[in-house]
UniProtKB/TrEMBL annotation:
<dbReference type="Pfam" id="PF24827">
    <property type="entry name" value="AstE_AspA_cat"/>
</dbReference>
<keyword id="KW-0378">Hydrolase</keyword>
<dbReference type="GO" id="GO:0016811">
    <property type="term" value="F:hydrolase activity, acting on carbon-nitrogen (but not peptide) bonds, in linear amides"/>
</dbReference>
<dbReference type="InterPro" id="IPR043795">
    <property type="entry name" value="N-alpha-Ac-DABA-like"/>
</dbReference>
<keyword id="KW-0862">Zinc</keyword>
<dbReference type="InterPro" id="IPR055438">
    <property type="entry name" value="AstE_AspA_cat"/>
</dbReference>
<protein>
    <submittedName>
        <fullName>Succinylglutamate desuccinylase/aspartoacylase</fullName>
    </submittedName>
</protein>
<dbReference type="InterPro" id="IPR053138">
    <property type="entry name" value="N-alpha-Ac-DABA_deacetylase"/>
</dbReference>
<dbReference type="GO" id="GO:0016788">
    <property type="term" value="F:hydrolase activity, acting on ester bonds"/>
</dbReference>
<feature type="domain" description="Succinylglutamate desuccinylase/Aspartoacylase catalytic">
    <location>
        <begin position="14"/>
        <end position="194"/>
    </location>
</feature>
<keyword id="KW-0479">Metal-binding</keyword>
<dbReference type="GO" id="GO:0046872">
    <property type="term" value="F:metal ion binding"/>
</dbReference>
């Protein structure tokens, strides 16, 4: 398995940053952003090395889907196997890149089916220096939501980074098909701001002012973006709650309409928090994720409803 990463070696010795795009094959803003980074990072002005993987999961990209034809989710397959199924081989190859790196950024979106509020996340790892480095990378990336989640999640690139003690963040921005230029720009800016914080580049583009919403939640279920609010029936889903809305239990998130009778089945929230993910592809099967609500473990019901 050869991922054909692009390596930009700076004129001055410094940290080694690995940036991944296309871990999921239907997430296009990261792929465009990494290509643009490859075109614009000037090795003469660079301290350290940047390794770029523009499309980590070629089989999934070719399938226009989250996964390739073996249907394994690459983001649940780390550290992979050298002689395993295609997705396991990709995970193994990326794991080797992670072990060689000093820092990792893994870029995602909601893919064809979901849209996700711009957020940057990391694992609440036990190593204090690594955790602090991740907090600083996440703050530097500059997206509105910063989400520290359970370090016990397995199979992710961040799990591989945790095991290699490599400070790592991931990011999410939008989704729903196509490639939003605002998302591409946010990812280019975010990666460059992290490179600036790591003192790898000097002349930074001006940072946008963002209202920061920081949640650190060490509960086991925290950090899952794919298993919440599973559709109880198949049908046509129409989301009603807006992304970033503050939700309380009982709020209607959307409705599944029976494709024949058009009878609606309301999907209601059971949690309090910020709606950070919602399904945008209307056709749903039983079990498809419809929404993710970001709970604040410190929240005792104080925000204005
Ligand atoms: Zn993804």
């Amino acid at each position: 398995m050869n991922l054909q990463p692009l390596e930009i070696a700076g004129a001055i010795h410094g940290p080694h940053l690995l940036i991944l795009a296309g871990v999921h094959g239907d997430e296009y803003e990261p792929i465009a952003a990494v290509r643009r980074l490859a075109e614009t990072i000037d090795s003469r002005q660079l301290r350290g090395t940047v390794t770029l993987v523009p499309i980590a999961n070629h089989p999934a990209f070719a399938s226009r889907s989250r996964t390739g034809s073996d249907h394994l989710d690459l983001a649940r397959t780390f550290p992979g196997f050298r002689h395993g199924k295609p997705t396991e081989q990709i995970a193994f190859a990326i794991n080797e890149l992670i072990e060689e790196a000093d820092f990792l950024i893994d870029l995602h979106t909601g893919g064809l089916t979901m849209e996700i509020s711009p957020l940057v996340g990391y694992m609440l790892v036990s190593d204090a220096a690594t955790l602090e480095a991740q907090r600083q990378m996440a703050a530097a990336f500059g997206l509105p939501i910063v989400w520290g989640t359970s370090a016990r999640l397995e199979g992710r690139s961040l799990s591989a980074a945790r095991d290699a003690n490599v400070p790592a963040i991931y990011a999410e921005w939008g989704g729903g098909g196509g490639c939003n230029p605002d998302g591409v720009a946010a990812y280019i800016q975010g990666c460059k701001q992290v490179m600036g914080a790591l003192k790898m580049i000097a002349d930074l583009p001006a940072a946008a002012d963002v209202d920061r919403y920081v949640i650190e939640d060490d509960r086991d279920a925290s950090g899952h973006l794919q298993i919440n609010y599973p559709a109880p029936i198949a049908g046509y889903y129409e989301a009603s709650a807006a992304l970033d809305a503050m939700i309380v239990p009982g709020d209607e998130l959307g409705r599944i309409y029976d494709p024949q009778t058009l009878d609606p089945t309301p999907i209601c929230a059971t949690q309090r928090g910020r709606l950070i993910t919602r399904r945008v592809l209307p056709a749903v099967d039983v079990g498809d994720c419809l929404a993710v609500i970001l709970e604040d473990p410190a929240d005792k019901g104080s925000f204005d409803e």
